[in-house]
Amino acid sequence: MMAPAPHQSPADHSPENWVQVAVCFTLEGDLRYLSHHDEIRMLARTLSRARWPVAYSLGFNPQPRLVLPVPRSVGLASECEWAMVTLAHAARAGWLAQTLADALPAGCRLVELLVLERRVRPQPACVTWLAELDADEAGIAHAGLDNLMMRDSALITRDFGPQRPTRQVEIRPCIDQIDLDGNHLRMRLRYIEQRTARPEEVLQVLGLPAGDVLKSRTRRVEILWKTPLAAAESWPPARERKHVG
Q1: Structural domain of residue 94, as residue ranges?
Q2: What CA–CA distance (Å, rounded) separates 11 from 35?
Q3: pLDDT tens digit sequence for 16-43
Q4: Is residue 32 classed as helix, strand or coil in its secondary structure?
Q5: Measured distance CA(203)–CA(130) in Å, rounded
Q6: Global pTM?
Q7: Closest CA to 132 of 76, 70, 207, 183
Q8: Strand partners, 85
Q9: In a 3-state reduction of DSSP, which class is residue 22?
């Protein structure tokens, strides 16, 4: 059940007072099985527990102004899950980070928080995935890797959901780079017109078996934005920050 919207003053409805915050966090363990909408609901409850001054939509059933700009397939973990949250008024990055870190459920860890200079709709340029293979899978991937990167085409059959027909999709232009280092397969996938290949589709093209076993060993490790997120204030401070997705 969605957490109820807090009482909002008339100033909360004034867009000139709103501030956008970009939050990067991990999503691990059983939480990787959350659907997109379930993840939104989980974050809404978390923000309510953290007592963030979240801006809400108008109407009979107000909803928090909360967006996941890079959706994730069910079953895939993420080291760099991003959420864009609109606040009704400004708050310090340190306070936001502390209250959110204390409220996040097990399987989530706060990585980075940016109080943005202006509200934006970020679009991904590339997303990097890392798959942990066993010895047999690594051998299959090695055999299929050179062949794939020399090809101009890689057609897959994509399932678009219940009661919708499957169709063939060309994913080769979306495959920017693939590296195999021992048992670690790193896939950098390019976004073209806001569409990209799914990591499980790339694994399938390499000849690896489809299914939840390998999917459970695949995680998102980096997101590169078309336009960098400009922050007025950030957490952790610059001297403490390491490279994050």
Answers
A1: 14-122+228-235
A2: 33
A3: 889 999 999 999 999 999 999 999 999 9
A4: helix
A5: 11
A6: 0.87
A7: 183
A8: 21, 66
A9: strand
